[in-house]
Amino acid sequence: MDAVKTPSSPDLGKYAFARALRPFSFPVALVTCLVGLILGGLQGSVNIAEALLVLVGGVLLQAGVNLINDHADIAQLRRQPDSMRLIAAVQLNFRAGLLCFLLAAAIGFHFVLQQGAGFLWLCVLGLAGALGYTVSPVNYKSRGLGVVLVFWLMGVLMIAGSAVAVGGALTFALLLQTVPVSVLVSLLLLSNELRDYESDAQEGLKTLTVRLGYARGVSLYFALLAFAYGLLPVLLWLGLLPGALWVLPSLLMAFKPVRLLRAPAERRAPLTPATARLLLVFGLLYCVALLAPRALPL
User: Is residue 24 assigned to a domain?
Assistant: First the structure.
């Protein structure tokens, strides 16, 4: 027989480990690391074992970010009655997140020994940014900066770091090639803010979408989506993405999240997983577009 839930034994809800882990967001790490590995590989050969290690490190870093995401909620939870189980769950997730960071740092140190101090600085920036996502006194999520800084930390920095880890050179051209996928990484976080807009506003969380308002948040979603796809012909013109047309079929994955943007709050839960699938398909086709001149010419 199931235990009867009482006020003294609340459902952990979003603080349950499986939900706090947010596995639907793992495409962020997989796609960004894979794009970086391909960009590094286009500059030279890539060892398969090293590539797999980069992917594992990226997923660990993403898991760590997800697990510490709710740490800033503790202050609010302390003001609620019968919330000790929730606080304990958040603290457990936070410690698990720190363990993920530690394991990711160990993998990073392996590549520091191979690539030198330049890669070390990329690792330090990545870890510092990940910890600052929700941990005080930085807590840039609550400052409305999450969508902006995730573009750099989980997008540009993750892609460029993966390329450098396998021996690629950090060039201006490579940085330009990171931008379209990085924009969709920001779009994924924005979709999460749009999905939770009403609850975040009620709880006093000052995310970017709460600060802008839902309508402007939706407009920003469309702007980022258009910007990501608008960059494809620019990169094609610059000779940095000769197979750019391969990415266009991923637009089909945008129909569902775009429809959900107009849905009422209670029906908006699939918005973030749908945006994650868009990112995954876009990223995989982007990889094909990078390789297309060699393997799949149009």
Answer: yes
Question: H helices within 69-135, ranges in order?
Answer: 74-77, 84-115, 117-131
Look up the pTM and report it: 0.84
| 1 is a domain residue | no
Per-residue pLDDT of 144-180, as tens digits, reads: 777 888 898 889 989 999 999 998 888 999 999 999 9
SS3 state of residue 81: coil
What's the total number of domains in the chain? Answer: 1
Domain presence at residue 96: yes
- Between CA 177 and CA 289 the distance in angstroms is 11
> Does 136 score more than 70 pLDDT?
no
Is-cis flag, bond preceding 264, omega within 30? no
Rounded distance between C-alpha atoms, residue 73 and residue 85, angstroms? 13
SS3 label, residue 147: helix
Residue 6 forms part of a structural domain: no
Strand extents, DSSP E, the chain? none
For the chain, the straight-line distance linking the first and the last C-alpha, in angstroms and rounded, comes to 61
Assign 1 a pLDDT band (cuts: 50, 70, 90): very low
Q: What is the DSSP letter of 196?
A: T
Return the CATH number at 275. Answer: 1.10.600
Domain range for 69: 13-291
Length of the chain: 298
Taking the C-alpha atoms of residue 225 and residue 65, their distance in angstroms, rounded to an integer, is 24
